[in-house]
UniProtKB/TrEMBL annotation, chain A:
CDD domains: ETF_beta. Pfam families: ETF. The keyword Phosphoprotein does not apply. Keywords: Electron transport, Transport. InterPro entries: ETF_a/b_N, ETF_b, ETF_beta_N, Rossmann-like_a/b/a_fold. This is Electron transfer flavoprotein subunit beta/FixA family protein. It comes from the Archaea. One of its GO terms (molecular function) is electron transfer activity. The keyword Electron transport applies. Belongs to the ETF beta-subunit/FixA family. Residues 24-212 form the Electron transfer flavoprotein alpha/beta-subunit N-terminal domain. Signal peptide: none annotated.
UniProtKB/TrEMBL annotation, chain B:
InterPro entries: 4Fe4S_Fe-S-bd, 4Fe4S_Fe_S_CS, Cys_rich_dom, HdrC_iron-sulfur_subunit, Helical_ferredxn. The lineage of its organism: Archaea, Methanobacteriati, Methanobacteriota, Candidatus Methanoliparia, Candidatus Methanoliparales. It comes from Candidatus Methanolliviera hydrocarbonicum. GO terms for molecular function: 4 iron, 4 sulfur cluster binding; metal ion binding; oxidoreductase activity. This is (Fe-S)-binding protein. PANTHER family: IRON-SULFUR-BINDING OXIDOREDUCTASE FADF-RELATED, IRON-SULFUR-BINDING OXIDOREDUCTASE FADF-RELATED-RELATED. GO terms for cellular component: plasma membrane. Gene3D superfamilies: Alpha-helical ferredoxin. Belongs to the HdrC family.
Length: 255, 395
């Protein structure tokens, strides 16, 4: 099974103080640290596990400048066989990015394409699905289990309310991977050094034949949500506070 | 042959000299409550049964206290054999998730706590005194190396602030690196991430060189130990591999050694302090005591505090009971069941009627604080770093 995994480098914003830049269209990035998108890391691990179970290759792909190569090196150290960096600015618009990735992937040999279900920066969760549509292949989003059958997969998707649904899907196909599908292995620093020998191909948009498409969305303004006005801090002793809280909950119809 | 970063086990650790006497297992701080059996692991190393290592989850129970190495009659280093075994697991990628996350965080955030680099200096915010920041070009005789835990853990941050207050009062010329301060690498090394440790040694020595830092005071015995005992050897090895390592000689001291010097120079004495009417029992940290034979300085400091009644644990100095905070154990719960060593320790202190357990290590402070609360001594006992005690008593 030949698998292509699309990966992206994103800022870690879980705990960092995020502020909007002067232009009002992007966040200030200077003090943030960047790493492989969490969902993508699970997708790379899943691809490598599929390869380890069966024959095949794993190719990781990213779009961006040379500073994005560390996530490819890391994926190669995990066990991917080759990496491709498309040397152009990450378009950020999902539709434009999907078009770029589609143009690159359509000429590659693959049975399966994996994406992270979403990316930790914009969290749109649509790029992978758009690429599947452009490639004209089956897809499943939020995938939390893959079993390979003959020319097909048994694929589990995570639904709302704790439900799973299972499909048999004919290959080639594209899945967007949910975190928790596996437990990604640790990649050691010496492992990354050793993986320097593996192929990392840099391609230009012209090499791939990327055509310009218009973004479907345009970003007007970015701002932090204004603080709400309806929060109430209940003071007093624990007994008083509990009594007040209970009466408030009753009043609002919680019981 | 079992592959480790430095070569094979027999060459790296001389394991064939092991006569299986069992002194290591008999001394081990966790063998009573864990399956960790260092004699068995030495045997595995001798026989090169390396395929079996994944099954030995208890390899992650070792606190790296070093007592097995101290007591080995053949002068072997069983504690290092465990590091080597962890290293081979790290290279294979299959390690406890919490250890994995800690190591990944060192790679991206330069600390194992998963906290952003940009918040490393937040503990400074409540401080009244002005501190020199060497990374902003200010000159100072000493770098006060805070370390990851004392930078981020809310309980331990109080030690960092106390250190600033005390050293400033005593007129020590020091500065910090603020947000630019890196992880020292001690915990990654003990968790077996040799490549990451080497990278940190190279980066950190270049950083110290860039800011002309040659004298360092550490809060943590773990940072002290790695700067003094691991850095020179690692730097030498890296130089042989043509890495760009500056020729600097670091003079590193644990803070209790600096305070001892101040006492000897007449710059710190009981006259400068208010009464501290407490029964104080000192807990020797493994990395200061067992690993570096520094027993006297902390005791000397506590003994000059007026009003303090200093008592000792039965198990003290090189027999001190490890708190189980080292060797990556802050990020690995361990397989052990039964009473934690830290609980045994606070119970011992309570039996001896101590009102303050004095410590000189952030991990000891963290584990003993937890144990104090768990064992129900919140009203009767405090766990304090020596810097915190001085901050409280200095006039």
């Amino acid at each position: 099974m030949d698998v292509i995994v699309c990966v992206k480098k994103v800022p870690d914003t879980a705990e960092a103080d995020v502020s909007v830049g002067a232009g009002g269209r992007e966040i200030n990035k200077e003090r943030l640290t960047f790493a492989i998108n969490e969902w993508d890391n699970y997708a790379v691990e899943e691809a490598i596990r599929l390869k380890e179970e069966d024959e095949g290759t794993v190719t990781v792909v990213t779009v961006g400048g040379k500073d994005k190569e560390d996530i490819l090196r890391r994926s190669l150290a995990m066990g991917a066989d080759k990496a491709i960096r498309l040397d152009m600015e990450d378009p950020e618009d999902s539709f434009v990015l999907a078009n770029v990735l589609y143009t690159l992937i359509k000429d590659q040999k693959f049975d399966l394409v994996l994406f992270g279900a979403q990316s930790g920066d914009f969290n749109s969760g649509v790029t992978g699905v758009m690429v599947a549509r452009m490639l004209g292949i089956s897809h499943a989003a939020m995938v939390n289990g893959i079993e390979v059958l003959d020319g097909r997969t048994k694929t589990s998707r995570e639904l709302e309310g704790g439900l799973n649904e299972i499909y048999e899907i004919k290959l080639p196909a594209l899945f967007t991977i949910q975190t928790g599908i596996n437990e990604p292995r640790y990649v050691s620093i010496s492992g990354i050094r050793k993986a320097r020998k593996k192929e990392l191909k840099v391609m230009t948009p012209a090499d791939v034949g990327v055509t310009e498409v218009k973004p479907m969305l345009s970003l007007e303004k970015m701002y932090l949500p204004p603080p709400g006005k309806i929060a109430e801090i209940i003071g007093g002793s624990p007994e008083e506070a509990a009594a007040k809280l209970a009466s408030l909950l009753k009043e609002k119809g919680a019981f | 042959m079992m592959e480790v970063e430095e070569g094979n086990f027999d060459e790296a650790y001389d394991v064939y000299a092991c006569m299986q006497c069992g002194k290591c297992t008999g001394s081990c701080a966790v063998s009573l409550r864990s399956d960790l059996n260092i004699r068995e692991l030495m045997r595995i190393a001798i026989l090169n049964e390396n395929g079996e290592l994944e099954k030995h989850e208890e390899i992650w129970d070792c606190t790296s206290c070093g007592i097995c190495t101290v007591r080995c009659p053949r002068d072997l280093k069983p504690a290092e054999v465990i590091v080597g075994m962890r290293s081979s697991l790290v290279e294979g990628g299959t390690i406890p998730i919490t250890v994995r996350d800690a190591l990944e965080s060192v790679g991206t955030n330069n600390n194992p706590w998963g906290r952003p680099k940009s918040k490393r200096a937040e503990w400074l915010e409540d401080l009244d005194v002005k501190v020199k920041n060497i990374s902003e070009g200010e000159d100072a005789e000493y770098l006060l190396y805070i370390g990851c835990t004392a930078s981020y853990d809310p309980r331990i941050q109080s030690v960092s602030r106390a250190a600033i207050n005390v050293l400033t009062k005593l007129g020590v010329d020091f500065g910090i690196l603020g947000e630019e301060e890196p992880c020292c690498g001690s915990e990654p090394r003990m968790m077996g991430e040799t490549g990451l440790f080497e990278m940190l040694v190279e980066d950190n020595l270049n950083l110290f060189d860039e800011f002309s830092i040659s004298k360092i005071i550490t809060l943590s015995p773990h940072a002290y130990n790695t700067f003094v005992n691991d850095y020179p050897e690692c730097a030498k090895r890296l130089k042989e591999d043509d890495a760009e390592i500056p020729d600097i000689e670091l003079e590193v001291k644990h803070y209790t050694q600096i305070l001892e010097e101040l006492i000897d120079d007449g710059r710190l004495d009981g006259e400068m302090m208010n009464e501290f009417s407490e029964t104080v029992i000192y807990h020797d940290p493994c990395y200061l005591g067992k690993r570096n034979n520094i027993f006297e300085p902390p005791r000397k400091i506590l003994n000059i505090i007026p009003g303090a009644r200093c008592i000792e644990f039965d198990r003290r100095e090189d027999r001190s009971l490890c708190c189980e905070g080292g060797g990556g154990r802050m990020w690995a719960e361990g397989t052990g069941t039964g009473e934690r060593n830290s609980i045994i320790r606070v119970n011992d202190a309570n039996r001896d009627e101590a009102t303050v357990i004095a410590v000189a290590c952030p991990f000891c402070l963290s584990t003993l604080e937890d144990a104090r609360a768990t064992a129900g001594y919140e009203e009767t006992m405090r766990v304090m770093d020596i810097f915190e005690i001085l901050d409280e008593v200095l006039k």
